Q: What sequence folds into this?
């Protein structure tokens, strides 16, 4: 028993590692021999979710729950023909003619040439075996991991924290129980041997004794606690409203991590203004509805937030129509320069070829939007002093670039050399 107690730290660490491993194991879906349902899930979101849900509700086309068992069999063969070219199949196939009539004679997209046979196999595998509502959360977390972005889905984060707390709690209780077992046994042994029982030590004395005899283990535990404190402290500090880091609460809890990270949607898809002119722009809810007609959210939290979009645009998901009253959403602005300063996105993004992340940080990892750079005059000027200008960019600036290269042969030209420090460039 004494031995067991000595080995306890080792056991604790081992149990901890085992628990962590289990907590981080991905939940693997039943894979279908013909296609890859996970790849299929992505294709579905990209090409099909605009018109179909994976449930029973109709969007433009029917809900596809259980579709592989209702279409003519063998399902894979029929679905291949249908997805590739439903128009062709409609000429001969009676089932196709029936669903066409049932759905108000709305044509589905022809995917011949857009999707390969292998991709269609993937979608069919996904539809044959769609993840259950709650499971999709782990699927999208797994997708995050493959997309090589920090996969710290907020849900997964809390999930892991809860598991950690349970593990730590269990271990504490376990060690207390073992302690009392040891005491009882030791007492029994002492009685048998006829040795006088040593003075009963309190838990605190025991702990002190343990610390004195286990220096390395104590140091490790202390380090762990300090690290934990630092990590949580850091996260807490980020939560305080400082500028940069300013992040007002938004009417819809929109996460860039879910969109630009896990689902790899390009920034420009939503902020199309950044390539066209001064303002990057916040997308209208119509842009959101391109996807969210079909994507209703894989967990209750997502569902709740996404239903706010429906409320705002007056979408009735059960009818698949914009039949309710609308309630426009007002996003709170995060970045704002004073009116006397002029900043133009396309000048930086298109001509300067700068990544959004250079000024906005790793937005694809943000769960709430926040200001990253200080946006002070010093910040603008520092970068203009340091950043070499792309001399190969053509169009408007080509002539100017040419003149500069002749003026400073062999030198790296920065924005400052081009007049990027002149007051008038940034101030009206
Ligand atoms: C533009 C809207 C639209 C898109 C995009 C679309 N569909 Fe359809 N789909 C329909 C409509 C509408 C029907 C019902 C038949 C009809 O009216 O042509 C349908 C029917 C179907 C059916 C038969 C449903 C049943 O109840 O038997 C399947 C299977 C199907 N679609 C799969 C897909 C897949 C897979 C994709 C993506 C690769 C896709 N669809 C993309 C509109 C669409
Ligand atoms: C699916 C659409 C979508 C995508 C993709 C997207 N954004 Fe956004 N973005 C939004 C919405 C909606 C807001 C306003 C709500 C908010 O601030 O969270 C926003 C806000 C912002 C803001 C703050 C605007 C302000 O108020 O000052 C910045 C900066 C930003 N996005 C940058 C990016 C970058 C960089 C990317 C690519 C890595 C990106 N966004 C991808 C929809 C999107
Ligand atoms: C190109 C497709 C696409 C567009 C456009 C899009 N979304 Fe999403 N959105 C998704 C996907 C995929 C998910 C993840 C769904 C899931 O895992 O259940 C999602 C999830 C969400 C969620 C729940 C997760 C979260 O971010 O908190 C909200 C809220 C949301 N979207 C709002 C918006 C808003 C607002 C817009 C428009 C500014 C928008 N979406 C545009 C594809 C899109
Ligand atoms: C050189 C730095 C820089 C780069 C690169 C940059 N931005 Fe910005 N962005 C800013 C500044 C500065 C503001 C504040 C502008 C203002 O208040 O007038 C801003 C504001 C925004 C806003 C909110 C206000 C608006 O203009 O609609 C969005 C959204 C945004 N940026 C998205 C993007 C996206 C997406 C990209 C990449 C395609 C990008 N930005 C690249 C510096 C930058
Ligand atoms: C990350 C680096 C960076 C930051 C930060 C930055 N700029 Fe720039 N800026 C550039 C580059 C690079 C160019 C040159 C584009 C080109 O011509 O190739 C440029 C060009 C300009 C121009 C055009 C100058 C001309 O010669 O016509 C203006 C105006 C400007 N920036 C304003 C600003 C303002 C205002 C800010 C701060 C709010 C800012 N910039 C922040 C890199 C930056
Ligand atoms: C690259 C762009 C850029 C150039 C060049 C530039 N400024 Fe600014 N300036 C800014 C921005 C952006 C702000 C707003 C900073 C803020 O809100 O903190 C600003 C703020 C100011 C302010 C207000 C100070 C304050 O703290 O609010 C003054 C005064 C000013 N600039 C003067 C000048 C003068 C004089 C020059 C020429 C020597 C100049 N600026 C050149 C971008 C520039």
A:
């Amino acid at each position: 028993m004494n031995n067991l107690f000595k080995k306890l730290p080792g056991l604790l660490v081992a149990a901890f590692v085992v628990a962590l491993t289990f907590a981080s194991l991905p939940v693997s879906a039943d894979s279908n021999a013909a296609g890859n349902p996970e790849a299929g899930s992505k294709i579905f979101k990209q090409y099909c979710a605009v018109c179909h849900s994976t449930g029973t509700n109709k969007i433009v086309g029917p809900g596809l729950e259980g579709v592989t068992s209702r279409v003519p069999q063998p399902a894979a063969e029929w679905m291949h023909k249908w997805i590739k070219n439903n128009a062709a199949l409609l000429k001969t196939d009676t089932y196709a003619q029936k669903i066409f009539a049932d759905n108000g004679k709305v044509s589905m997209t022809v995917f011949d040439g857009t999707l390969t046979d292998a991709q269609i196999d993937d979608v069919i595998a996904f539809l044959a075996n769609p993840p259950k509502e709650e499971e999709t959360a782990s699927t999208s977390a797994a997708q995050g991991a493959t997309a090589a972005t920090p996969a710290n889905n907020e849900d997964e984060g809390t999930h892991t924290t809860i598991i950690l707390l349970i593990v730590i709690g269990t271990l504490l209780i376990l060690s207390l129980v073992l302690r009392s077992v040891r005491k009882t046994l030791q007492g029994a042994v002492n009685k048998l041997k006829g040795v006088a029982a040593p003075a009963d030590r309190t838990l605190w004395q025991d702990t002190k004794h343990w610390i004195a005899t286990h220096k390395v283990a104590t140091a490790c535990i202390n380090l762990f606690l300090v690290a934990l404190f630092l990590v949580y402290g850091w996260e807490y500090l980020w939560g305080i409203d400082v500028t940069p880091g300013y992040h007002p609460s938004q009417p819809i809890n929109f996460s860039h991590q879910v969109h630009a990270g896990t689902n790899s949607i390009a920034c420009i898809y939503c902020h199309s203004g950044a390539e066209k002119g001064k303002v990057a722009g916040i997308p209208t809810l119509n842009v959101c509805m391109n996807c969210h007609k079909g994507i209703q959210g894989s967990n209750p939290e997502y569902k709740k937030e996404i239903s706010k979009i429906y409320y705002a645009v007056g979408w009735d998901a059960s009818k698949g129509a914009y039949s309710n009253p609308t309630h426009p959403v007002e996003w709170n602005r995060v970045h704002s320069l004073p009116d006397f300063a002029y900043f133009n996105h396309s000048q930086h993004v298109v001509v300067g070829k700068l990544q959004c992340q250079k000024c906005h940080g790793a937005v694809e990892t943000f769960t709430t939007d926040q200001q990253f750079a200080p946006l002070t005059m010093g910040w603008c000027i520092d970068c203009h002093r340091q950043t070499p200008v792309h001399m190969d960019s053509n169009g408007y600036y080509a002539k100017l670039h040419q003149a500069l290269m002749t003026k400073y042969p062999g030198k790296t030209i920065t924005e400052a050399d081009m007049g990027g420090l002149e007051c008038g460039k940034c101030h009206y």
Remarks:
- The radius of gyration is 31 Å.
- The pocket of heme C (ligand 2) is lined by residues 250, 254, 256, 259-260, 265, 267, 269-271, 282-283, 331, 333-335, 356, 360, 363-364, 369 (CB under 6 Å).
- The first helix runs from residue 2 to 24.
- Residues 17-32, 133-156, 238-242 have pLDDT under 50 and may be disordered.
